[in-house]
Amino acid sequence: MPKITLYQDIPHRQQVIHLWRLVFGPATGHNDPALSIDKKLAVNDGLFFVALAGEQVVGTTLAGYDGHRGWLYSVAVHPEFQATGIGTQLVRHAERALAELGCMKINLQVLESNKDVVAFYQSIGYAVEERISMGRKVEENIPRIS
Fold it and tell me: How far is the C-alpha of 103 from the C-alpha of 100, rounded, in Å?
């Protein structure tokens, strides 16, 4: 089973960027992998984890905590390692880190059309809640991608 560890920029950055492009598809301005990494590192909250098979990054998860709720982001597992328990291991690791901070509830968002991912989260105890997820882009902070 791969080892879960804190993200380290020099050995992990290029592998994480590649993984996220592979799993999540092409980037848009607000979810460019390099920008997402830089913004997460700027927060310096110790909630960015990678799964390593040897030296190879095979999974990631980012967590966030605002003192009220925790969030999971960018849970990704390399296609060759999916359905091996790595996704569950990453989520549980992030859950423990959030719990240690006092978090009482963890949220995440999944595209409604991504039925396999919804089923994965349901299989590990997450439930669809009757909420409306809303968002607003802050255009002046989103870089233009050519």
Answer: 7
Tokens of 34: 């390099």
Q: Which two tokens stand for residue 9?
A: 């920029």
For the 3-141 domain, the top CATH level (class) is alpha beta
User: What letter would DSSP give residue 67?
Assistant: S
Mean of pLDDT over the chain: 93
Helix (H) or strand (E) holding 65: strand 56-65
Domain ranges of the chain: 3-141
Binned at pLDDT 50, 70 and 90, residue 29 comes out as low
Q: Walk across the sheet containing 3-6 and list its strands.
A: 3-6, 48-53, 56-65, 70-77, 106-107
Q: Residue 1's pLDDT is what?
A: 81
> What digits encode the pLDDT tens for the residues 109-126?
988 888 999 999 999 999
